[in-house]
Amino acid sequence: MDKRYQIFVSSTHVGLRKERRQAIQTLMELNCIPAGVEFSPLQDEEQWSFTKRMIGDCDYYLLLIGGPSEAVSEESIGCAQKEFDYAVASGLKVIALAHENPGEALTAQPDIDPALGEKLKAFRTKISDGRSVKSWKESDELPGLIALRVLKTIQTYPAIGWTRSNRTSNEDILNELIHLRKQNDAYQAELTHLKSALQFSAIDLADFDDTFTIHGTTRVRVGSDKTPYDRAWGMIVSWARIFALIAPYLEERPQSSKVKQWLADELADSLDAGGHARAINDQEFKTIAIQLQAYGLVEITPLEATGGGTDLVWSLTPKGRKTMFELRTVKKIHV
Known about the structure:
By secondary structure, this protein is α/β, with parallel strands linked by helices. The protein is built from eleven helices and ten strands.
């Protein structure tokens, strides 16, 4: 995508007209948009308000500090410092270029206030704090130096820039549409969950700590000939306990048959039922699935199986993950 960057040009010396023209010409050749106070219209509006808006529209800030042949004044330094402070406060990256001997500009003006030299020196020190300031001696050095510094700054610190409205990248539009679609899918999922929770709230569900009786079998071998036999068992267990037993496995989004087997094994082990081929009553397992969905703890969704048909896949809802951590984490013991 063609993108152009707007760069505000500022200087400490009023005599840097040639150097400013060179800077502007170089920026234009780099396909950048130069801006500065010389571009301000002659209107009744306060000059500084216009300058602030101009700096706010820019992507970078270019500052030139002059040499011995340029006039320097209290006003020129003050304006440059004001512009610099506002640019930094606005988050613009500063590209500073300083003459090797700026102090000579003061000696070339014998009637200058010595305090002005100290002010210029202090400003140079401020500019150099935390950033690299490149030096120049002859104005002919500036175009190449500006080009190098601007290109490096743009590469290192890419800004928003400006793009013609009729050249907006189709890729950018596509990425934005994908992002919006993902957001919409997330909102739709949350809305579905909230509607489901609202629907089930009208049902007089058992409390989470209430109990439910689960019946199952475990296969053992009896007699001298080790004949296989399905031994029946039953267990009264709370809904909280049922959920706590299977919740960690649901992070893997397992099929319903695996959840059923995990629950059967966990309950049989807690009863020391032994044996193998553990199973639980199918209708009671379906009740468990419906109850946990009604609590808003799990989602059970159909998924097309690889070999044909449909599998039911279990997963935790956000509420389910939170409840799992509450039930399964080891709490600190307060003495």
